[in-house]
Amino acid sequence: MNRQTLEREFANLVERELSLNLTRGKPGTAQVALSDALDGILDGNFICSDGADARNYGGLRGIPECCELGSALTDYPAELIMAAGNSSLQLMYFVLETIVNYGLAGSGALRENPCKAICPVPGYDRHFAATEFLGVEMVCVDLNDDGPDMDQVEDLVLNDPSTSIMWCVPKHSNPTGCTYSETVVRRIANLPRLRSDAHSSPFFVFWDNAYSVHDFGTEPVALSSIFDHAVAAETLDRIVAFASTSKITHAGAGVAFLASGNWLLSDLEARLSVMIIGFDKVNQLRHARFLPDRERLAEHMQKHAAIVRPLFEATEKGLQEQLGNTGLATWTQPTGGYFVSLDVPNGLAKEVVALARSAGLQLTAAGATFPYGNDPNDANIRIAPTFASVEEVEAAMTIVGMSVRLAAARR
Ligand SMILES: Cc1ncc(COP(=O)(O)O)c(C=O)c1O
User: Fold this and answer.
1) Closest Cα to atom 16, ligand 1: which residue?
2) How far apart are the CA of 369 and the centre of ligand 1, in A?
3) Over the stretch 248-296, which tens digit does the pLDDT of each residue have?
4) How far is the centre of ligand 1, averaged over its atoms, from the C-alpha of 351 (Å)?
5) Which of 262, 292, 322 is the endpoint of a domain?
6) What tens digit of pLDDT does each residue of 117-145 get?
7) What CATH number did the domain enclosing 317 receive?
8) Which of 70, 221, 263, 368 is most exposed by smallest CB count within 10 Å?
9) Can the peptide bond before residue 122 be classed as cis, meaning omega within 30 degrees of 0?
10) 1: CA distance to ligand 1 center in Å?
């Protein structure tokens, strides 16, 4: 199609005055409805497996049966899990803030010295926002199909003592959908050992396993256990794992989990106790009764998969029809998680997003997948299809494809 025809067809699209939105990485209404049985599930029985009354104060580490659920999500033993409030992101912020201002598990506070976070890119914008807010400088490393480029990461940890943390989304990562290989997981678990002085120059891994059971492909994807590797490397208190039920039950009213070594957990508990007596144990108990074992969890996730799979298939089909064999774009084909990562020719992502908006499709701002909102190549766009219908995704992919082709033709 020549440029004139493209311009005409695009003008026709604009005239349709569509209103579509693929910015929202959140479950659709049918997905959250899968967990409506949470409401009323306790039926007057508020007593936990250890005899505690969920309605009352106390139990900062969470109730035992909910820690079992955290164990299923993180692959850590239940004794090393803290079941907390409704947001893992809030826990990540809290841990980072504690590391920076106070220190954790024998590390000194970092605030006196410049400290940096290693950020595999493209990555999750809210990790970057929290890091920037706390004054921690961000250094990018490449995210490959098998995880972060570990040569780049190890080089930084060995040669730049101001690098103090690393962000990881190890399974169905946001936004590329990649899952880290066993070699990468082992090398990450070993990173804190590359530091000779764990007090003045500590290194912490933030292991955000937000999509650990969120497979929608034909086979569940296996992720090597960071816990096993951390035990072998003796780095348990330098790895902090996170998970939540946000994309399992009710996104705004789930349970978040944190897992690490006992030393780090006790330190965190002590600091938390200054600000809270206990998290919402009634909600924890509801979750534990709703998802009492791994089999029920797997069954439940199959129901999510049945809902989201057609949305990702429609995304793939639309991109293939519009952009396959044009040489203008590459995109990921995730087998789980919430996103597709689209790369357009360098220098065009912002223009593509603007064109799409003019045709009635909102996409996540170009650059959002990089620290400081700055994609140096201006090439990456995150697509989030779960909060739309199949018909909306189909229409949206036409707009995306036309926008990429028009932007390229205009250049
Ligand atoms: C990688 C990642 N971590 C964390 C979150 C948010 O988790 P929570 O709802 O538990 O705060 C998201 C949400 O999109 C995410 O993509």
Assistant:
1) 174
2) 14
3) 999 999 999 999 999 999 999 999 999 999 999 999 999 999 999 999 9
4) 28
5) 292
6) 999 999 999 999 999 999 999 999 999 99
7) 3.90.1150.10
8) 263
9) yes
10) 41
